[in-house]
């Protein structure tokens, strides 16, 4: 296999840095920190989980509204990097600010989390769109999976450092309270994220673009309208986005609420953090494996595999009672979460016209983010109505089934074919 180019590696290393946010803020330390703060304030376990779900729904709704508009403007020459930088700064600075929010103010924690999440997910919109600029179409599966693989490996380092500091603080080995140790983890995340984003800023540039026009905002709305009016040309893209809307909803919800769910089951913070660490380690080679297998069996078939494994995860969650059950569930998720995300990105990258990649990745974002509103709300409402988080997780199975059915209708993209030449098999 051809070696990765400087641009491909620089692009992928952003995942190495950004993924620290994904595990420490989205999945591990922050949810536990928030749950403890909410519990100390007298909020019930099911309500605090619900409030986290509502918060995720709020920031995803905001970004879903902005995504297509900002993406369309970013297609102009030189704009993609500027938008990426703006969201990157919002995300990193807000993540650092989490360390300075009073631990007894759980509501302010959630508000600050909204801004951090807006920055992280917004930067990822433009980062994903850069895939058409850094590599050729036939290498997209491999390069996309390489990014996710690096992300899982790289995120374990600041995660280990953070967990060691928290555990040493809990044992009284170092003169830090558990609260301050968690705050240190937030600062470590921001520093790590910033440091390993430098290659992205230095070596990745926008190769495909459209020439700048007067009144770019007004022109962007016109371009969106034109795209929507010609939607029949993009049948493959539309079908894929509908499928993606459903199955990525379930994936994102399970990732973002897994720690809160484990807490509701009575699992200790230490046990949860160990499971999450091992999940990251196991996910790295599986993400790379998905990329390699996609080159042999096609990305679409490997997406089928990932979705089916997530259906099993939702069903199995209904019967979880012990830490061993949680380990089994975590390893099932680890085997597929990176692969399904990486191949979704590369599959979509092959479908879209390169010079309008930001506009289309804006729609990719809006479908993904609107989906991420439905999943957390579904879990939140079901958890509150039944008083049992397991029913909330099980309810996600319908999303994966619908996604699988719609995906089966999406044609395989022909190598180097223009979008309007893609026809069903």
Automatic annotation (TrEMBL):
<feature type="transmembrane region" description="Helical">
    <location>
        <begin position="107"/>
        <end position="127"/>
    </location>
</feature>
<feature type="transmembrane region" description="Helical">
    <location>
        <begin position="302"/>
        <end position="320"/>
    </location>
</feature>
<keyword id="KW-1133">Transmembrane helix</keyword>
<dbReference type="GO" id="GO:0022857">
    <property type="term" value="F:transmembrane transporter activity"/>
</dbReference>
<feature type="transmembrane region" description="Helical">
    <location>
        <begin position="236"/>
        <end position="258"/>
    </location>
</feature>
<dbReference type="InterPro" id="IPR024671">
    <property type="entry name" value="Atg22-like"/>
</dbReference>
<feature type="transmembrane region" description="Helical">
    <location>
        <begin position="83"/>
        <end position="101"/>
    </location>
</feature>
<dbReference type="InterPro" id="IPR036259">
    <property type="entry name" value="MFS_trans_sf"/>
</dbReference>
<keyword id="KW-0472">Membrane</keyword>
<dbReference type="GO" id="GO:0005886">
    <property type="term" value="C:plasma membrane"/>
</dbReference>
<feature type="transmembrane region" description="Helical">
    <location>
        <begin position="389"/>
        <end position="407"/>
    </location>
</feature>
<dbReference type="Pfam" id="PF11700">
    <property type="entry name" value="ATG22"/>
</dbReference>
<keyword id="KW-0812">Transmembrane</keyword>
<feature type="transmembrane region" description="Helical">
    <location>
        <begin position="12"/>
        <end position="34"/>
    </location>
</feature>
<feature type="domain" description="Major facilitator superfamily (MFS) profile">
    <location>
        <begin position="236"/>
        <end position="425"/>
    </location>
</feature>
<feature type="transmembrane region" description="Helical">
    <location>
        <begin position="181"/>
        <end position="201"/>
    </location>
</feature>
<dbReference type="InterPro" id="IPR020846">
    <property type="entry name" value="MFS_dom"/>
</dbReference>
<feature type="transmembrane region" description="Helical">
    <location>
        <begin position="54"/>
        <end position="76"/>
    </location>
</feature>
<feature type="transmembrane region" description="Helical">
    <location>
        <begin position="360"/>
        <end position="383"/>
    </location>
</feature>
<feature type="transmembrane region" description="Helical">
    <location>
        <begin position="148"/>
        <end position="169"/>
    </location>
</feature>
<feature type="transmembrane region" description="Helical">
    <location>
        <begin position="270"/>
        <end position="290"/>
    </location>
</feature>
<protein>
    <submittedName>
        <fullName>MFS transporter</fullName>
    </submittedName>
</protein>
<dbReference type="InterPro" id="IPR050495">
    <property type="entry name" value="ATG22/LtaA_families"/>
</dbReference>
<keyword id="KW-0813">Transport</keyword>
